[in-house]
Every structure is written in structure tokens, then in C-alpha cells.
Amino acid sequence: MAEEAHSEGTGLVFHPLDQFIVKPLFGEGPIQWYTPTNVTLWMALAVLCVVALFVIGTRGRAIVPTRVQSVAEVMYGFIYKMIEDVTGHDGVKYFPYIMTLFVFILFANYLGLLPMSFTPTSHIAVTAVLGFGVFIIVTLIGFVKNGPSFLGLFWMSDAPLILRPVIAIIEVISYFVRPVSHSIRLAGNIMAGHAVIKVFAGFAAIAAISPISILAIVAIYGLEVLVAFIQAYVFTILTCVYLKDALHPHH
Amino acid sequence: MEGDIASMGQFIGAGLAAIGSGAAAIGVGHVAGNFLAGALRNPSAAGSQTATLFIGLAFAEALGIFSFLVALLLMFAV
């Protein structure tokens, strides 16, 4: 996607990673766990947007939906169909969790695209909680549903017998790397995109190349609108894939 | 430009880690190109495989993001 990690104070007017600094909302001072910061503000705004769309927007429950209600219905149907396609019919039970993940990440990404705003999903601390939450819940579901035979996920019964222990080791490692890659993928994509926008914004201070850099910002912003949706989609569909592995561990 | 040998190593390492992003770009292009080639041969089956496409793209891209992360760690955390 993008690759920006430099600009050590020379040249640019501001540092491209300054936008990710967590600040307390009121005054200065050390950040405790209860301090309201810009992260909590924008996460709360994301939750408020979700509530506005899904609770207030669909309050009428009209047969012929209003505009807001049909947006909510399209998103509901989209996630419902995705879960049914990927995990099969018995995964539909976990629809509320997956829908919550999707709408929260989607609105956090899109609110982060507003100028002067803050993107909670650009922090690995936020996405790691989501990713490890998925990992723990899916592992628990696997053991509760299948008992010890969940471990059959790591034992490929259709591979040659000599290779099976080797494959089992690789499968176990890849299973435990899942939450790491799951969370870093989301945070890395969002952070890289926002950093690129800020790098081009820094170039806009140089008169000779400022028109080009503003055009580049517009283009990258369009790409980021796409990336914000695709990353929410990818996070959700990978959750569905992991859930499918937990529900049907035998290939 | 003054500095010590350690920060030179940092910069060189971060630049080398950036190569990984280019490699991930090759992988992502491979996935998308092969999907398009297959989809044009059999357009009726393409719609049901977009989920697989995005999963493949995500796995290919994750490793590029890892190298980006290594670059970031070298620049800011070490």
C-alpha cells in the first residue's frame, strides 16, 4: 500500500506521524486509564453514529424504508449474506458480534477521514483488542462446540503420514500468528494511508510543487475512502473464516 | 548531517525493510491479475469468488504491512 517512515524533522513543516499522538481532551498531564482522550472521543463518536444509523434511523420500521433505513438494511443484509456464505448456516448465531465489529471499524475508519479528526483504528492498541478478542472468542467457541476434537484442525488427515507432524507444527504457529496479523493489518493500512496524506500535505508548503501535491492528496484521499471500507470488510470476513474453522475443524 | 553509526544503521535498515512493501505489491498484483484472468474466462463464477479474492489480497498484503512495521519500529522505537 504505502510506505512512509522517514522525514526526521528536516524539511517538512510538521511530522507526518504527529496526527497519531494520544492527547487528553481537557488540560495536560499524565494519561491514566480513565482519562478522556481524543481516542475515546472518536470511538464514542463512532458508536454514536452506529446508534444513530441503526436505532434512530430504523425506528419507523416502515415497509417502504426511508433513505436511512435502507442504508441500514443494506449493511445488515450484506453482513448476513457474508456470514452465511463463509461459515454456513450455523454461523448465523454469531451475527451480532460480527456485525458489531464491522460497523464499529467502518465508522471509526470513516470518521477518521474527516479533516482534523483522529482515527482510533490506526492504533495497534485498539485493533489488538479487537483482534485478540476475536481470537479468544473463536478459540473458546471451537473448544466448546467440538471438545478436544477441535485439535483436529491442526492434524491434516489427508496429508501423507510422515508430513503430518511437520504440518501440525506449522499450523499451530500460523494459528497463533492469526491475531497478530489480523490486528496489524488493519492498523498498518489505516496508519500508512494517513501518514502518506500528511507527507504530501507537508510538500504543499513548497510553492513549486504545491499544486501537484494537492492533487496527490485528493487522489490518495479517494483511495483511502476505498481502503477504509475494504479493511473493515477484510477484518470482518477473516473473522468469519476463523469462525468457520472453529465450527467445522475437519477439512 | 551528523550522527553516529547506529542511526545510520537504523536508516539503512528502514530503507531495506521498505523493499518488503514492493514485494507485497507484486503479490497483491499477482492475486488480482489472476483473479481477473479467471473471471474473464468464466464471468458467471466470478461473483461468488470475490470473498476469496479479498481474503487472498489480505494475506498477501499483511506481509507487506509487517515490513512497513519493521521500518516504523527501526525509525521510532529502536
Observed structural traits:
A: 251 residues, mainly alpha, 63% helix, disordered N terminus, B: 78 residues, 0% strand
Topology:
The complex is a heterodimer of chains A (251) and B (78).
Chain A: H1 38-56, H2 67-87, H3 95-112, H4 124-146, H5 164-203, H6 210-247
Helix pairs in contact in A: 1-3, 2-3, 2-6, 3-6, 4-5, 4-6, 5-6
Chain B: H1 5-41, H2 43-46, H3 50-77
Helix pairs in contact in B: 1-3
Question: Explain this structure to me?
Answer:
The complex is a heterodimer of chains A (251) and B (78). Chain A is mainly α and 251 residues long. Chain A has one domain (19-247). Chain A has helices at 38-56, 67-87, 95-112, 124-146, 164-203, 210-247. The longest helix of chain A has 40 residues, at 164-203. Chain A is globular and about 65 Å long. The two termini of chain A are 33 Å apart. Residues 1-9 of chain A have low confidence and may be disordered. Chain B has one domain (17-77): F1FO ATP Synthase (Up-down Bundle), CATH 1.20.20. The longest helix of chain B has 37 residues, at 5-41. Chain B has helices spanning 5-41, 43-46, 50-77. In chain B, 88% of the residues lie in helices and 0% in strands. The model of chain B has no long low-confidence stretch (mean pLDDT 87). In chain B, helix 1 packs antiparallel against helix 3. Chain B is an all-alpha fold. Classes of the chains: A mainly alpha (251), B mainly alpha (78). At the A-B interface, helix 2, helix 5 and helix 6 of A face helix 1 and helix 3 of B.
